[in-house]
Amino acid sequence: MNLALRANWQQGDFRLNIDAILPINGITALFGRSGCGKSSLLKLIAGLTKVPDARVYFQQQCWQERRHFVPLAQRRIGLMFQQPGLLPHLSVQQNLLYGFQRAAPAQRRLQPELVQDLLDLHPLFKQAVSTLSGGQQQRLALGRALLASPQLLLLDEPFAALDNQSKAEILPFIRELVQHTGIPMLFVSHDTREVEKLADQLVLMADGQLEQQFSMQQALAQPDSPLFVDADAASVFFGVSGSADAFGRVPVYSNVATTDCQLWLGHCNFATGTELRLRILAKDVSLALTPISDISIQNQLPATIQAILPHRGNLLVHLTLADGQLLLSEITPYAAAQLRLTVGMQLTTLIKALALS
Amino acid sequence: MTALSAADWQAIGLTLRLALLTTLILLIVATPLAWWLSHTPPQQSRHHWLRSAVQALVALPLVLPPTVLGFYLLLLLGPQGVIGSTLQSLGFQHLAFSFSGILIASVLYSLPFAVQPLQQAFQQLGRQPVEVAASLGAGPVDRFITVIFPLCRGGFIVAATLSFAHTLGEFGVILMLGGSIPGQTKVLSILIYDHAEAMNYQAAQQLSLLLLLFSFVVLFLVYGLQRQLNRSDR
Question: Å from B24 to nearest chain A CA?
């Protein structure tokens, strides 16, 4: 699926200048600093602002071109903002069904029961909207948007106002919902962790322009990845959880299915078979020339060095695991010199189980 | 207190009819106007001055002497005026000294009392609830009925009451444009003036007290109701 966008729009000092076709399969993150025009772009797509002389196509549907302008109510877009935007004069249930009741029966793709179950909304029905917590409100808003059976979900920093607890509550739902429903999602964020946890691909924006489009793996492999500008370098391990052993450890098998590529997690509550993304900070990855037996670190994976690049006074070592996934390790130049690291070298990576999330 | 005369009752009926119709028309006119004034998309700065001009026009009746408004309306709607003469050439009556004339005058005169509470309510509402409803497939009328009206009902109640009460108290504009024709333009305020002019103080006193009490009760109920609404919203 894709969005074709063209706009050249001056507002005061700010200029939105875009001419691109964005592929939007799965979850796409629109990433950039505050003020770079992410929200303006979202408003253009949603038709919340009538940008003069702009052109917006979703698949084959023309949403805006010359005089033709489809109002938001007819675009079938699910919107979520930083504020959940629940209607305070309606009950939880009325809020949830507001869009469902307005969708043509033939276009309804999801049933309320399913969404209620997926988002665990049943316990909220007896409460008044104003008494829900921030995370609960966002869950309800998400369910409401989904039940309108949108063709596209647009989220503008939907988790920015949530505390970490509420965020952890809602993030797993989002991936599951997108996979389950197949509705493409474009979300605006400047939170690196969020992007790494959720996105399948990444669109970078700066100064009102679209800079680059990457898959997640490509974005992480960039030596000067924009994801690491404000946050520590990290890589993402894509895997599936197995069942816990006698000690409560949970194994995570690589998605790409290679037997000797498996990480152990400390105690956690994932159901067996859950698709996981483990964000591994480069600082938490140590390197050894040979496997080490008498050490508390349980995750020892063989890897090959692809590149060694300077990174803020240290070195960022790009490694590929046996299954081909990228792993980053940040070490001091001294350590690199001691180990005599070179590109192509085989070595062992050490990752503490507790460093994984 | 003596019983009210037939002329008194006629004036009361006329006043209520004028106030009700004015309120009804004002709600229909002021709602879209207040919406337009309260929701300036910031990027449409070319409308910036237009909006300021409209806002100033709406507020004019607050500062102008009613006689000025009445005078211009008389010029405009009378037999020599642009609107009055056009109407006559089309085979209608001109509008000076008629009920329709003072109805138009009342609508203009009470416009700020309808627009301002609504504008404030719409500003407080913000864009988000409406945008969310739109994204959920609600069209403009649907959004008005299911989102804007219930969330701004306090503003609508205040706008309606103030329009109604302010029309009851109208005098100068009607005197200029409408004169004092029984059953057509002789509303309570004019009748009280006529009674007083004729040294008929007892009749004037009776009607004045009636108007005073009625206005107080209406305002009292509205502000009480508004407080109640505010409390239940919290």
Answer: 25
Q: Are residues A150 and A256 in the same domain?
A: no
Interface test with A, best of B136, B142, B147 (most A CBs within 10 A): B136
Which residue range(s) make up the domain with A332? 234-351
Interface of B with A (CB under 8 A): 41, 43, 128-129, 131-140, 142-143, 146-147, 150-151, 233
The residue among A176, A199, A226 that closes a domain is A226
Two tokens, residue B87: 């109407």
- ipTM given for this complex: 0.77
Do A259 and A218 belong to one domain? no
- Does A54 fall in a domain? yes
Q: Classify burial at B50, counting beta carbons within 10 Å of its beta carbon; exposed 0-12, middle 13-18, buried 19 or more.
A: exposed
Position A103 pLDDT exceeds 60:
yes
| pTM > 0.90 | no
In this prediction, residues A111-129 reach a mean pLDDT of: 88
CA distance B130 to chain A (A): 9
- CATH homologous superfamily for the domain B6-233: MetI-like (1.10.3720.10)
Q: Are A78 and B41 inside 8 Å of each other by CB?
A: no
Q: Are residues A165 and A239 in the same domain?
A: no
The answer to whether A73 contacts B137, with C-beta atoms less than 8 Å apart, is yes
| Whether B134 and A85 lie within 8 Å, measured CB to CB | no
**Chain A / chain B CB contacts < 8 angstroms:** 59
At A321, is the secondary structure helix, strand, or coil?
strand
| Contacts for A221 with CB less than 8 Å, ≥ 6 apart | A318, A326
Asked if A48's CB is within 8 angstroms of B137's CB, the reply is no
Mean pLDDT confidence for B107-111:
95
End-to-end CA distance of chain B: 47
CA atoms within 13 A on the CB side of A316: 22
Q: B28-50 pLDDT, tens per residue?
A: 999 999 999 998 665 555 677 88
Q: Nearest CA to CA, how far is B119 from chain A (Å)?
A: 20
